[in-house]
Write a structure and sequence with these properties.
343 residues, mainly alpha, Glycolipid transfer protein, GLTP
Length: 343
């Protein structure tokens, strides 16, 4: 049974990217609703229906971060925009349940039907940018990583790389000291994009398929990396995976810490836990110098375009939860296959 309005009003409009659910879907407030059997009776209330590390691993090449300069750019993508005529709402915050005085019912009864959900592999469009002139948009980051994990627990590599495309913008926004780090992260992404566009592209749609294919073909050097071998997808994504843990830990510490705690120190602690064990002494020293140039807490909150500290903390916590889910699924895949210590 489809969606239709009440007897006297047109059907409501739906907008993707405005809710807090898995796909961020919630009906936009309109003039009509979803009817039951045509009796036009309103819903019990007027609330909206919300749907519900080491990058520079050993043997990876030259450079201060230990990376090899494969690739010439990034061809990743990130979802953006908002569908239909929906108006941007504050991201990642619950909708108000207070009815608007004099307004018609927002929703009528559901008669056993469901709102259609976009299939996995097509991220829900992100909200309109809150800081239009800023490269990094946390709404695009969350839209990509939300769509990254399927109901079956698979990691979609296209959406994974789309999320990392936004993370690169965040790293780049941390200052010139992090510029090389951002560039070399792009190099890792380009390697994976090359696999996805190559002759074996069907095997690089999901993380699980990529791991199974490369192990079966003997493309992963489990103990040493032969100098004439191209970098495998498993090894390349492992570097991004470790770095994702660093960012997860740092954003989590930033959202829970008090104003007296120095963000540069928080970032250094997260680095020591997630990435330092895989880096050489020289790389660790360079990273320590970069952390000293980290922006202030207020400037970091400004990167998520929050209206005040409370909202900034809430937005960061949302990001941490979504990133942690992607990380945990990836960690299980690598641990099951014995790939967490690839050279």
């Amino acid at each position: 049974m489809g969606l239709r309005g009440t007897r006297d009003t047109p059907p409501t409009q739906c907008c993707f990217g405005q809710g807090r659910g898995t796909w961020g879907i919630s009906p936009q407030e309109g003039d009509g609703g979803v009817s039951g059997e045509g009796d036009g009776s309103p819903a019990p209330d007027n609330r909206p229906l919300s749907a519900v590390s080491g990058w520079a691993g050993r043997g990876q090449g030259s450079g201060p971060w230990g990376w090899a300069p494969w690739g010439r750019g990034v061809r990743g993508w990130a979802p953006s925009g908002c569908c239909g005529s929906c108006s941007p709402l504050r991201p990642f915050l619950a909708f108000s349940s207070s009815p608007v005085s004099g307004s018609p019912p927002l929703l009528s009864r559901l008669s056993g039907s469901r709102l259609p959900l976009p299939r996995h592999g097509t991220p829900a469009p992100a909200q309109a940018p809150r800081c239009p002139g800023q490269a990094f948009q946390i709404s695009r980051l969350l839209a990509a990583f939300r769509a990254c994990v399927t109901p079956d627990g698979e990691i979609l590599l296209g959406e994974y790389l789309a999320g990392w495309k936004e993370l690169i913008k965040l790293i780049d926004a941390l200052g010139a000291a992090f510029g090389l780090l951002a560039q070399e992260t792009q190099t890792k992404m380009e390697i994976l994009q090359g696999h996805r566009a190559g002759p074996h592209a069907p095997h690089y749609r999901t993380l699980q398929a990529m791991v199974a294919f490369e192990l079966q073909r003997g493309l992963v050097g489990l103990r040493v990396l032969p100098p004439d071998w191209p970098p495998s997808g498993c090894r390349t994504l492992l570097r991004l995976h470790r770095a994702l843990k660093w960012l997860e830990l740092f954003l989590g510490k930033l959202s829970h810490s008090g104003p007296e705690e120095d963000p540069s120190q928080l970032c250094a602690v997260a680095y020591q836990a997630a990435l330092a064990p895989y880096h050489s002494w020289w790389v660790r020293q360079a990273a320590g110098l970069a952390f000293l140039a980290l922006p202030s807490r207020r400037e970091l909150y400004g990167l998520v375009c929050a209206e005040g500290e409370r909202e900034a903390r809430a937005m960061l916590l949302d990001a941490v939860g979504i990133i942690a889910r992607v990380y945990n699924v990836t960690q299980r895949v690598y641990a099951t296959r014995g790939l967490l210590e690839l050279p």
